[in-house]
Amino acid sequence: MGSMIRNGKYWNFQYYKNGKKLYYSIGRIVNESDKNIKRIKRQFEKQFESKKLNIKYSPRLETLRDDYIDLKTKEVSRRQRSQNTLNSDKQHLRVFCKYVRDYQGLLNIDDVNTKVIKSFMNYRFDVDNCNSTTVGNNIRHLQGFFKYCVENDYIETTPITNIKIPQSIKRTIDDIPSKSEFNTIKKYLTKYVDDYLNDKVEYDWVKLISYLQVRIGLRLGEVLIMKWKQNKKTDFGENHSFSYVYFNSSKSKLTIYFKKRLRIIPIKNTIKKLLDKIQKDTSSKVYVFENPETKSQFDNTSFSRPFKKFLREIKVDDQYTSHTLRHGKITELLRDDYSISKIGELVGHKTQKITEDYSHLISSDIEDLIYN
């Protein structure tokens, strides 16, 4: 005997094996009439009580992916997980499941072994041309998913156990735009914003986000979750892992809580005018930069390709990532002799040492003091 259990949009068949309660994930059921639910229940009871089939059944990978995301979505609503982490889980699992579907077929969770994971990593490196930071993030997010599968007795061990996760790339001076490159980016974006405010060019979310990074030194993640106003149910409090970024009603103050550090940045002049125009042009309701298709925030990965296209457009090396704009702003402020403590306060560094570490990136500037 067994029973049908509904979990939000999805259904599970609950049964017992050797005295242990187990679940088989069914996914969505199109026709949820009592008659159809009973028919499906009988079908699974017959299947799981058969002597030939009295084994633990392996659900489809994508079915468990949907169950996992549904569970994490509920954790966000209970403030046990941040929306950013959930968005990252969705993105990394989407990439993995698409690879499996396209190159391995519709696999059950038992079929996803170490060989499949290694094949996925090689594909990301060789075909998608991803760096070790991106591939490492892919695998780290898969760890949480497979841990969920083990805890719910869908698999005995995670296929990632014996896999060496690629380490993040260590940033060097070659990964940071040079003084001339940063000035090229800044000059172009300043002119673009001026033209945009005068209705000479169209709205371009990638260039506008880049402008805010160049002017204020914001992280990409901070810009993407930036809201027009505070959500009083979620955007408050400190000393937790949930991040939030919002403007006050007059757009004269930006409140940022990111990486467990709170800072408040005054907004005026060009940036305030820019925000007013963005709100008018986009009619976005919640996020300053809102995806028109999903009516929600953009994710980090959707920014990467158009950003590199923008760099090629202005003839700057496209090896740089959006985060290097933040690095560029910090090194620019160091070159202009602003105090390390003030710079750290602006960009949200936890300790002064983090800001000091950027000084090695401009050590070559000392040559100007000697030889010019």
What report would you give on this structure?
There is one protein chain. The protein is an alpha+beta fold and 372 residues long. The chain has three domains: 47 residues, no CATH class; 91 residues, DNA polymerase, domain 1, CATH 1.10.150; 199 residues, Orthogonal Bundle (hpI Integrase, Chain A), CATH 1.10.443. 49% of the residues lie in helices and 12% in strands. It contains 14 helices and nine strands. The strands form three sheets. The chain has a four-stranded mixed β-sheet with strand order 4-5-6-7. It has a three-stranded antiparallel β-sheet with strand order 1-2-3. Strand 5 and strand 6 form a beta hairpin. Helix 2 packs antiparallel against helix 3, helix 6 packs across helix 7 and helix 7 packs parallel to helix 11. The radius of gyration is 25 Å and the shape is elongated. About 2% of the residues have low confidence.
